[in-house]
Amino acid sequence: MFKEITRKIEVDGKIIELSTGKIANQADGAVLAKMGESVILCTAVSNKEVKEGIGFFPLTVHYKEMKFAAGQIPGGFVKKEGKSTDKEALVSRLIDRPLRPLFHPAFLNETQVICTVLSYDPECNTDILAIIGASAALALSPAPYQDIIAASRVGLIDDKFILNPSFAQLKNSKLDLAIAGTKSSVMMVESEADLLSEEQMLEAIEFGHQACRPIIEMIEDLVKAAGKPKLQLTDLYSSSLRDQIKNLAEEDIKKAFSIKLKQDRYTAIKQLEEKIFRHFAKDLENNNLNKSQIEFAFKAVESEVLRYDILHQNTRIDGRKPEDIRNIDCEVSILPKTHGSSLFTRGETQSLVVITLGTNQDEQVVDSIDGEYKERFMLNYIFPPYSVGEASPVRAPGRREIGHGKLAWRALNPVLPAKEQFPYSIRVVSEITSCNGSSSMATICGGSMALMNAGVPIKAPIAGIAMGLIKENDKFVILSDIMGDEDNLGDMDFKVAGSLEGITALQMDIKISGVTLEIMKQTLEQAKAGRTHILQQMYKTINKANDSISQYAPCIYNLKIDKDKIRDVIGPGGKTVREICESTTAKIEVNDDGNIIISAIGKEKLDMAIAKVKMIIFEPEIGDIFNGTVVKILEAGAFINYSTNRDGFVHISEISKERIEFVSSVLKHGDIVRVKIIGFDNKGKAKLTIKNVESGNNSISEAKSNRSHENNNKESLDNGRSKRESAKKWQHNGSKTSTNEEIIKERKYFS
Fold this sequence. Notes:
By secondary structure, the chain is an alpha+beta fold. It contains 17 helices and 30 strands.
């Protein structure tokens, strides 16, 4: 029934298998990609005709993780997969970027690639497998996909490169690099790194690229056996049309490019394009030409003018040389009530960044086929229409916004302090208030400054820079800090972020058939010089974290108690901890390991909550003195509440030095009396005395006149007990000087 064709290859001990002919046979190309126990169905379909009036290549890529792939049922009320998660959007972009440049430029048919995870093995990450499967599906299809790519992931553990590390291995890796390329060129790079050098990054790229070549050969072999004939296309426009437009518009395009302000320049270009349409109006009416042909030919001339000036005159649109950086302006603390803020401006690109510090309860819960986990560092990138002078609908973040935000997250995450050092959850929000290229890099620069302004002790300030490329045959020029036009009309957008010591993030997108390692090496060297310049400008405003956090940020206190005390702090049904939170407005998180995290806005409220918790976990000793409240009277004596959750018994003989007949004659319910612990019964209940308290304060007579008062706080002890009391004092460095060191440890974080 099926004519299934399968090819296999072993890559670093893991078998990669591609098969076609059994599943999804109505798709133009369909591949079942397997590695370990991960299985992905990758399909490619192109419409047979071009959509009317299309002016771009409409390629869409969808990566979807089915919960059943990991033996899970979707959470929430609707038990089915919903809209794409951030991870799915990011992997879709990862697949799209190396594929898009390899289609014939005249191919404008709507094309859709869908990669569905059917089985998930944590030892074999599915994003790399999805790129391989998508490439194979397109190679099998009739779509004019002109070359074949493969992909690999590279980790760095104990100074050794690891090929396609597992999810668990990546947690201990100094590098997470995804790379895709053809046999001869690198097409896409995306990475997070722990301050690695340019040399190490190049070695990792080369290591990963070499691993792609045998996979490409396997796909080529599969295509020979099962591939369909490729669609043959002619050029989008004739050379004569381009020459006509060049003669009509070249000088005017040069004049437009001399305008330095982006909006004015765009207006001049738009007016010139309309002039060209008017010139060819009759050809359009007679269907000798269509609008798309004129648009593409005009853009080709526009690109030719920009590229010629850079390649042959070493001059860019705004007059800069290739290695020059636009003017930079930096500010911090521009928003008074936020926990940290900055405004980073580079040329016409500007990012307003705000930091919010929270507690464990503010961490992001992530539900994926990798399992549920919490993320303490969140970064949101917002790109409003006004930033590019447009009035358009404001929608939820799309793939571009998610991708730019994740790139900035990768750049800043390696320099954040460990949770043990800084127990806050951290949210960074970057609103792009003006954009002319490199807005994600502005987010990184502004984010770094805002973190320092918020008092987050980052390991090093981070800056980002976007590098461009203009390449004609063997001649090329690398551009630092590219603008929007240089991105649109150039050949590469290579983003590099890091400190003075090393790189934390890379992302490369290209529009040509690949770049060599030589070009990448020169790009990284030039990017380092540019990154250093930007950091020096940032240092003039802020170069290290503030010593304290904002007064509006929550104060956090960490307490480590014995596990046996957890139930006392929580109370029956959570009553005790809830009452503390309500009375102090603090937040209290009690963990199963005995770690208690108390947070509140303001030190006073925090101290109130701390005192209440400490009274609960306090272990009384013989000789301790308290102000207690009479809670029950018996013939033989009275029960006294001497601590928040502790009662002790005072015998009638221990109430007064004088003989008394009835307890009720000297004590009433609610009386506050001074008591001392003289022992414990066999159940651990304290035996109390009133008559033998050293101090004369709060005698029986005074108790009668103060029955309306309540004070359960333990007071200072006499000088004779100062040595023992000092031994019980809690220290801010997380230790305790008494022998009960394992019972309680604490740490404070406040301004």
